Amino acid sequence: MTDPPPALSLRDIQKSFGAVQAVRGVSLDVAAGETVALLGPSGCGKSTVLRVVAGLERPDSGTVTVAGRDVTALPPEARHVGLVFQDYALFPHLSVLGNVAYGPRVRGAGRGVAEARAREALALVDLPGLEARRPAQLSGGQAQRVALARALATGSPLLLLDEPMSNLDERLRAELREGLRALFARVGAGVLLVTHDQREARSLAGRLAVMRAGELVQVGMTEEVFARPASAWVAAFLGEVNLLPDGPGWVRFVPEGALRPGVGEAWPVSAWQAAEGGVRVTVEHAWGPLTLTLSAREAGALEGSTLRLGVDEAGVRRLPEDRRPVRG
Ligand SMILES: Nc1ncnc2c1ncn2[C@@H]1O[C@H](COP(=O)(O)OP(=O)(O)OP(=O)(O)O)[C@@H](O)[C@H]1O
């Protein structure tokens, strides 16, 4: 048996807006059944990549292949891609059921079949009983789930999600994160997710693609990227703070997981701050300042204004220093 083609294959996508090179040579595959999160700072080109895949922007060069079909020259409606975009709102004049049935209808399904598919999709996102409501009568969280159901009902091999939970409060996000992970596994579509929220990326995506100034700078299994960032810039972007100078062009990356409070030599503590789950301290180690969060129990290892701190050297990495600005 041959493997199914990837849900999405991007090859050397380039896209400029006037003098701004928004996307520079992006190549990426998303396998069927896989979720890939595209992460990067504001303005790095994430939305442009998604819009190129959706057909809302035409790339200057490169190809977009969806489930084995070259769609580069096709309009959005001919691509068979499910979209959940912030600016891709629900139709206000249609009911919830009408909104979700719209995709199958446009693709030629009869009314009965389309509505049956819509009911299935609404059940998947756990929204029964709201079929007759208008979008204006929904909460933000309900509206986002309807948008998801609308994308799922298309039966597309590829789903594109741009900040799908941005309108939700933290409690709803946590709830939906769990649900979405199971849902994506069940429907078997490839998912390309753009998010600013690292927790969302970490919990939903099997792989991460980290983007900087129009280019992918690291692509890998999610936990692997967090454990082994390719450079100082990636580490800093992922929230790592213990990046100490280590000769010209290099840094010494000390992940928090490699720090052993209460072990070895005592060092002065230069900063304290209350943090979620304990206290965040900065220790003036011989290598340089090292910051870590101590649990209430570990904080017991503080001796006045010093802390014994060992470093598990097997966890320490030397990374290229690439944090100077790149041209925009
Ligand atoms: N239609 C457009 N016309 C001109 N410039 C654009 C257009 N769309 C995007 N850009 C520029 O292209 C670059 C990439 O923008 P894009 O929206 O893809 O970034 P992003 O990573 O999605 O940002 P954010 O996280 O803030 O949404 C930015 O410099 C942006 O100003």
From TrEMBL:
Keywords: ATP-binding, Cell membrane, Ion transport, Iron, Iron transport, Membrane, Nucleotide-binding, Transport. InterPro entries: AAA+_ATPase, ABC_SmlMolc_Importer, ABC_transporter-like_ATP-bd, ABC_transporter-like_CS, ABC_transpr_FbpC, P-loop_NTPase. Coiled coil: none annotated. Residues 8-238 form the ABC transporter domain. The keyword Ion transport applies. Signal peptide: none annotated. It holds the Pfam family ABC_tran. It comes from the Bacteria. PROSITE patterns: ABC_TRANSPORTER_1, ABC_TRANSPORTER_2. GO terms for molecular function: ATP binding. This is Vitamin B12 import ATP-binding protein BtuD.
